[in-house]
Amino acid sequence: MIFPASNTLRPDAKGRITLGKLAEGVSSFRVMLDDCGRIILEPFAEVPLREKWLFDNPKVLKAVKKGLKESAAGKTHDLGSFAKYLDD
User: Fold this and answer.
1) What are the Cα distances from residue 84, in Å, to 35, 77, 81, 88?
2) Is 38 helix (H, G, I), strand (E, B) or coil?
3) Of 21, 67, 80, 84, which one has the greatest count of Cβ atoms within 10 A?
4) Mean pLDDT of the 26-41 span
C-alpha cells in the first residue's frame, strides 16, 4: 500500500509517531536508517513458539493451506458432533 506524499506523520513531544492502520497485523518492526537519513521500518509478523512447528514442516503447512482454501470454497464435510469426546 502506497500513501500519497501529502500524508505527513508528526512526532509528539516525546518523539513518537502513531502508525495506526499501517501497523495492522504487525507484531514488531526492524528499524533501519539509510545513507540519506531516511528511517525505514520493516514490519514483522511473528508466530508463537507453540505454532512454530507448523511453519517448520512444509508438508503439513501445505496441507493446512489446502484445507483452508477448500473450506473457504465451501468444500466441507460435516462429521457431526464431537461432544462425546469432551472428557477425553
Assistant:
1) 64, 19, 8, 9
2) coil
3) 67
4) 93
pTM for the whole structure? 0.51
Q: Which three cell numbers stand for residue 83?
A: 461432544
Q: Quick one: DSSP state of residue 17? A: -
Joined grid coordinates for residue 16: 513518537
Helix ranges (H only) for 1-88 are 49-55, 58-72
Cα–Cα distance, 33 to 2 (Å, whole number)? 20
Kindly report, residue by residue over 5-18, the tens digit of the pLDDT: 557 888 999 999 98
CA distances (Å), origin 60, targets 14, 19, 35, 51:
46, 35, 42, 12
Would strands 39-44 and 28-33 be described as parallel, antiparallel, or unpaired? Answer: antiparallel
